[in-house]
Fold this protein.
Amino acid sequence: MEHIDITRLQHLDAEHHLHPFNDNAALAKKGTRILVKGEGAYVWDAEGHKLLDAFAGLWCVNLGYGRRELGEAASRQMTQLAYYNSFFQCTVEPTIQLAVKLAELTPADLNHAFFTNSGSEANDTILRLVRHFWAVQDQPQKNIFIGRRNGYHGTTMAGASLGGMAGMHKQGGLPIPDIHHIDPPFWFADGGDLSPDEYGIVAARRLEQKILELGPDRVAAFIGEPIMGAIGVYIPPMTYWKEIERICRQYDVLLVADEVICGFGRTGEWFGSQYFGITPDVMTLAKGITSGYIPLGAAMFNDRVAGVLKHQGGELAHGCTYSGHPVCTAVALENIRILQEEGIVDRARTEIAPYLAERWAELGEHRLVGEARIAGMVGALELVPRKGERRFFDERGHVGVLCRDTALKNGLILRATYDSMLLSPPLIWTREQVDELFEKAWKSLDETA
Ligand code: PLP
């Protein structure tokens, strides 16, 4: 590999690049890690360290790194036709084929795709189009969205407002009006003496209380991640989503599943909604749609919502320069082709996830771990001050960051949110990589404790 002047690059980075979700002054002092290569389950940094990526980039590299076919699909499309826009009433075959493929893969009658560049924009899209859906049916007052505290739906004004991250709400004039939040389902912290299944119903009924408080004729939609990722992989009890779905149906509130993390096999099912047995009216997608090889997002609408938007909605005053970008849709199609033809989602569900769950539970025995939660290929270890107690550290996040940095030193990428160590590996992992995860994570927990 060609020589890289790491110090110089770090200096230039510190001088000229503002990093998202970082304290940039602290990062400049520490020096960013420069990555140079990815292959399968691993990435390499400029100093030659080989790292097992147990986070799939940022919940997205489902196919693993270095698949030439995706690069070739991009290159073919770039050379043939690099760009088009619907503005001029045109389209291209890969974008049509991707819309068809998504209609086929997503549950029930989610048959209509609107393309964006990212998950955040997909959530902006649903906020505007769902409000429009009600407005053109003479219900403009039915415009309130309900999300959850600590939910994450992206970084744009609408995405961050739909999300319930207090730190984000503090910056830049958020949230925008007519968005409300209920408490999230997190049995570990909030379940008290209830069984997880009992708690799931109690947590879901918070939505009913909120709808009744606001008035059902004012509530447009409820949005949630099937499994809340960024805040710490909160896996709700199986009763939760079924009850949420019942409540949405009862009050004619649209159910929006933000599948940006859960979509494309993360839970072992193609979509998190299938894992929990629910049928949303609207779904947002990104990340795994291209395995992170190129930016792309989508909002999927069911026949009812899309029918109104198409036949009563008039001109949609909404869209991006790169909506349905042909290179991105060509890469997404190739990604989905490989996931399907190589049976990667099925193999993850039937072979890897059960073994991962076994070894994750073993990590749960460690004296620093209070809970080891997992659903398919996504999980978290909750680090606690005292084994056996469902209680957080007084100073939250300190131990998590220490464990994350120790894991990195040991050649393992795990994310920390507060003191939850988050797992979301590429779906192509083998049993050997699960064992490597176990060895490196156990060692890192030992060194952190
Ligand atoms: N929704 C969820 C559940 C996410 O986890 C994310 C990003 O992590 C987003 C939306 C935003 O997607 P993007 O970062 O592509 O804008």
In short: The pocket of pyridoxal-5'-phosphate is lined by residues 118-120, 123, 152-155, 225, 229-230, 258, 260-261, 286, 297 (CB under 6 Å). The chain has a mean pLDDT of 98. The CA atoms of residues 60 and 287 lie 5 Å apart.
